């Protein structure tokens, strides 16, 4: 934990606990379920670190045993076939994809290991929480919490204080808000 300017404990509660409720990503998703597939249009707005916009067309099967989705980004002219997250352990997932960029005339593949525990695996939690308002309308919130647990230590005969307390630290943020409209037939 970083110490304050005096070299001791931080000087204010704002340095210890910070909660940011202004999301850096806003998504609006329109989904239509047709004959065992979900067809979607995603409009993605990013406001940090720079303003950006992405539109995506998404096709994926509704069956639980199908582990892929197809994405097309018309502005970037990219096509991708991506696996769903494949659980390796309770907290570790693998995702693999292959894609083609028509602008760059290039084909390649990517893989990604992800976890809900980020950072050093202990001090960060990332998660998504979905709130269903009514049939066909859902809100999904992507949030993150970085923390250091409070700690109490002490010593005797070592030159260190008999009692020392580190009050911990929390930085939480609401990173993403998604509005999802789904039409089922």
Automatic annotation (TrEMBL):
InterPro entries: DUF7781. Residues 12-183 form the DUF7781 domain. PANTHER family: OBP3-RESPONSIVE PROTEIN 4 (ORG4) (PTHR35710). This is OLC1v1037876C1. It comes from Oldenlandia corymbosa var. corymbosa. The lineage of its organism: Eukaryota, Viridiplantae, Streptophyta, Embryophyta, Tracheophyta.
């Amino acid at each position: 934990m970083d110490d304050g300017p005096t070299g001791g404990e931080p000087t204010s509660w704002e340095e210890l606990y910070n909660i940011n409720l202004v999301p850096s990503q806003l998504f609006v998703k329109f989904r239509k379920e047709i004959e065992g597939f979900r067809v979607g249009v995603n409009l993605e707005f990013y406001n940090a670190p720079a303003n950006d916009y992405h539109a995506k067309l998404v096709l994926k099967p509704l069956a639980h045993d199908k582990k892929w989705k197809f994405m097309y980004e018309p502005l970037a002219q990219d096509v991708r076939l991506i696996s769903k997250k494949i659980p390796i352990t309770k907290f570790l997932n693998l995702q693999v994809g292959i894609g083609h960029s028509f602008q760059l005339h290039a084909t390649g593949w990517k893989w990604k290991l992800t976890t809900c525990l980020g950072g050093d695996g202990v001090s960060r939690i990332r998660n998504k929480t979905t709130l269903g308002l009514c049939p066909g309308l859902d809100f999904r919130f992507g949030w993150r919490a970085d923390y250091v647990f409070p700690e109490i230590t002490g010593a005797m005969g070592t030159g260190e204080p008999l009692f020392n307390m580190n009050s911990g630290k929390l930085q939480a943020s609401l990173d993403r808000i998604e509005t999802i409209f789904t039409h089922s037939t």
